[in-house]
């Protein structure tokens, strides 16, 4: 018997997130072994008159490919997949691997080659900029372990989050996007954090289920050379299968001049990937009411209620501050009291304290209003 929650999610992905139109080509990529959601998506694309194409990726196979990859092979792989991506109007990416650490022992130089020669041109430059796209995780035992819950409890949480009324959230985000559009100075404070920068004339973009499921953020970017001060992130994060904790950055005129973590050497290797990796490409405020704690899955963690993320690397075209990089690494700071609290100021006005919006026009984004 089909799970009606899966069919509802598929209908939302196809009809709302990427809004498939008759005749459009849709690439569905599944990383993992789950099949029910793919089949439901195929059915929903068919109802809309679209053409669906499927790619199945196994991380354990990808790991061996990457460990044995040559530069020539990587360029050819990118050329093949880039040509396919150019023929797509929509992209739905589903991540359901059994082990989030599958790529942790791939040599760093191989991962850098993959990010710069494959991921950057195929995804950052083509898929992100030229298709209607949405990416999501799919619940399994591995994700439940990361969230410290039973598999059944995690599935219930997952569908609560992913089948949220995102159209309602979209309207609630209008006031924050408008405020960010007219803001110049931003200051972020909290334990180990005192950071200031400008977002003047960069713009702001609402995220309410069109690009990510789950969703719940409004993003901008700092003026590239305006960032000064220190930020101490308090959510553990995965990068290329490696866990980083207690990341702390110090900025001078936009550049990360000091970076420490539980693996400071590897952290700095990543930040040395290119010049843009030591500058920030995104600043975003998260507020999904159902997501409260990090689980080392950025699609969930960057939407945590009462959080923000401040991202080294590539800027998005919609809020372009000119930063270019082969990386885009969303790092999360949670400011609710149970994580130490903290404040966000726009032009010297306190707009959020301890994860709760405190000015009337933004109260619609607090958890009790969005559930």
Automatic annotation (TrEMBL):
Whether Metal-binding counts among this entry's keywords is yes
Needed co-factor(s): Zn(2+); Mg(2+); Co(2+)
Q: Which UniProt keywords apply?
A: Aminopeptidase, Hydrolase, Metal-binding, Metalloprotease, Protease
The organism's place on the tree of life at top rank: Bacteria
Q: Name one GO molecular function term.
A: metal ion binding
Q: Which family does it belong to?
A: Belongs to the peptidase M29 family.
**Protein name from the UniProt record:** Aminopeptidase
Which species expresses this protein natively? Paenibacillus xylanilyticus
